[in-house]
Amino acid sequence: MHYTDDGNFVKDVEIGFNENKKILAIESDEFTNSVYSLWKKSGVIQIDEIDIYDGTIKESFQIKNYRNPEKIRISDDNVYFLYNDINSNKKLVKIPLQQLIAL
């Protein structure tokens, strides 16, 4: 929803999702005012940047090369998540969005 600076409602923006996708979360980057949907596609995490003005997908990225990333967060155009390495140790990963695989 969009509001004016004084709090009056301006408009709604509908965002459609494919019901076959498993949406994991909707993330908001407070630093860049961007909104992202996170979902799983064939076992790979995909991140879609959503244009909040018209509901379309601006860009899509995938987190590959990491087994079962957990607690994915996006902040200041960086993706943060936990994953288990080969020895089952939890590791925190920080990757700039632009270094992820773009679709």
Describe this structure in words.
This protein has no helices and ten strands. The mean pLDDT is 84. It has 103 residues and is mostly beta strands. The protein is elongated. Strands 3-4-5-6-10 form a five-stranded antiparallel sheet, with no helix packed on it. The protein has one domain (2-102). The two termini are 28 Å apart.
For the structure shown, list the relevant keywords.
five-stranded antiparallel β-sheet; elongated; three-stranded antiparallel β-sheet; 10 strands; 103 residues; 55% strand; mainly beta
List SSEs in N-to-C order: EEEEEEEEEE
Number of domains: 1
Query: What portion of the residues fall into strands of 2 or more residues?
Result: over 45%
The N- to C-terminal Cα distance equals: 28 Å
Structural class: mainly beta
- Mean pLDDT level: 84
Largest sheet: 5 strands, antiparallel
Shape: elongated
Oligomeric description of these chains: single chain
The DSSP helix count reads 0
> pLDDT under 50 segments (min length 5)?
none
The helix content, as a percent range, equals under 10%
Number of strand elements: 10
Compute the gyration radius: what is it?
Answer: 15 Å
Within the largest sheet, what's the order of strands?
A: 3-4-5-6-10
